[in-house]
Amino acid sequence: MKVDFIIVGHGLASVAVVEHLKKHDASFVIFSDENPNSSSKVAAGLYNPITGRKMKQSWLAAELFPYLEEFYEGLEKSLKSDFLYKKSIYRPFLSLEDQNDWMAKQHSDSPFINKTFTNAQYHEFINDEFGGLLLQHSGFLDVSNMLNQHKNALLEKKQFIKEKLEYKHLKISKDRINYKDIESKKIIFCDGPLSENPFFDWLPTAPVKGEILHIKTEKPLPEEVIFNRGVFLVNNPHHDYYRVGATYEWKDLNYQPTEKARKQLTDKLDDLLNIDYEILEQVAGIRPASKDRRPLIGNHPEKKNVFIFNGLGTKGVSLAPYFAHQFVNSIFNFEKLNDEVNINRYYPLYSN
Q1: At CB < 8 A and 24+ separation, what contacts does 157-162 make?
Q2: Measured distance CA(109)–CA(116) in Å, rounded
Q3: DSSP secondary structure, 15-48, as one string
Q4: pTM of the model
Q5: Is residue 44 pLDDT above 90, yes or no?
Q6: Distance from C-alpha of 163 to C-alpha of 154, rounded to nearest angstrom
Q7: Which terminal Cβ of the chain has fewer Cβ within 10 Å, N or C?
Q8: Percent of the chain with pLDDT over 70
C-alpha cells in the first residue's frame, strides 16, 4: 500500500489532522491500538471560553472557538451523526467580591458573555446566591461517540489499522517511509501522553492524569446549561448520568481511580450542588501535555518527513481543529506555525 501519510494514534488530535488532510486530497492510513483509557475517550469534552478561578478568557479564544464549532458541525454532516452540543455555561459567583471584580472587567470578554446575573438563577439546583455568568460559544463534544463514528468511517475505506505501530519496523529515509508493507511520504505522530516515541523523546512533556465522576442527581438538572465552578457538570447524551470533573495529577500517572481525586471532586461538588446525588462510577485518563502548557506541533529537526501533533492538554476539543488547520497548511502551503506551539522552540534540546 502506498499513501501520502501514516498517522499514529486516533484521538482528538489525529481526527482533526486527517480531516484537514482530506481537504488537500491526501491519502493516509491511521494506526491505533485503541487504548480504552485514552484521555479522548474518557473526557467530558467541555469547551469553555472563560476559565480558571479568576475567570479569564482562554488563550486565543477569539480564533479557536468560532472555528471549532464550524469544524465539528462539518464533521457531523460528513459522518451523519450528532456529537457537538452547543450549550451555555453558567459560572456562579462565589461571593459579592467575586461579583464586583467581574463587573469591573466584564467588557473585555463580552463576545463570550450572554448575560451577567447579580442574583440567584438556579438556586433550586446549585448555590448561586450572588448570581453568575452565562457564557456563549460554549458546550461539549461527545468525544467517545465522535471517535467511534470516525473510526467506523475509516474502517470502511481501509484507512484504519487496529494495531500499535512498532518502531522497530519503521524505516525512514530522506524521500520515503516504510512500515511493513506500507510506503508513505510522511508520518505524523499523534500518539498521546505516554508514548515511547524515539523521535520526539527529547521534548519536555508533562502528562497530566485526570479523573472524573459519573453521578446521578435526585432530579434532572436544567438541560439548557452546563454548571461550572470548581467542577463542571456535563450530561451524557446517551445515558442518564452527569460527568463531574476534573482533577490534575502530574506524578501518579496510571489509569487507576484514586480516593484522593474522589474527595477533591466531591468536596467541590458539595460546594456547588444543593441537591442530593449518587456516585455511579469514577474513571481516569492521562492527558498529553507539555511543560509550557502549549501544544507540541511541527517537524522533526533532522527528519523532514517526520512530524508531531500532540500535547493538547486539557483543551484538546478547542485546540485541535484550529491548529490542525494551521499545521496541515504549514505542510502543503508553507504557512507559518504559531511560535507558541511550534516545536522549534525546543530544538536546542535536541541532540542526535
Answers
A1: 158/29, 159/18, 159/28, 159/29, 159/30, 160/10, 160/29, 160/30, 160/32, 161/29, 161/30, 161/31, 161/32, 162/32, 162/33, 162/34
A2: 12
A3: HHHHHHHHTTT--EEEE----TTBHHHH---EE-
A4: 0.94
A5: no
A6: 14
A7: C
A8: 96
Tell me if 308 sits within 8 A of 298, measured CB to CB: yes
- Residues 140 and 153: their CA atoms lie apart, in Å, by 22
For every residue of 249-304, DSSP letters joined together read BSS--SS---HHHHHHHHHHHHHHB-S-EEEEEEEEEEE--BTTSS-EEEE-SS-T
Q: Spell out the domain ranges in the chain.
A: 2-42+144-203+291-349, 88-137, 208-287
**Which whole number is the average pLDDT over 294-306?**
97
Burial class of 295 by CB neighbour count within 10 A (0 to 12, 13 to 18, 19+): buried
Assign 121 a pLDDT band (cuts: 50, 70, 90): very high
Q: Which CATH number fits domain 208-287: 3.30.9.10, 3.30.1490.20, 3.20.20.140, 2.60.120.580?
A: 3.30.9.10
Q: What is the pLDDT of residues 63-92, one digit of tens each?
A: 999 999 999 999 999 999 999 999 999 999
CATH of domain 2-42+144-203+291-349: 3.50.50.60
Of 107-116, 156-165, 266-275, least confident by mean pLDDT is 107-116
Q: pLDDT by residue (tens digit) across 147-180?
A: 999 999 999 999 999 999 999 999 999 999 999 9
Q: Work out whether the CA dihedral 243, 248, 250, 252 comes out positive or negative.
A: negative
**Chain centroid offset of residue 99 CA:** 29
CA distances from 127 to 90, 95, 100, 231, 245 (A): 12, 11, 18, 13, 18
pLDDT bucket at 134, cuts 50 / 70 / 90: very high
End-to-end CA distance of the chain, in Å? Answer: 31
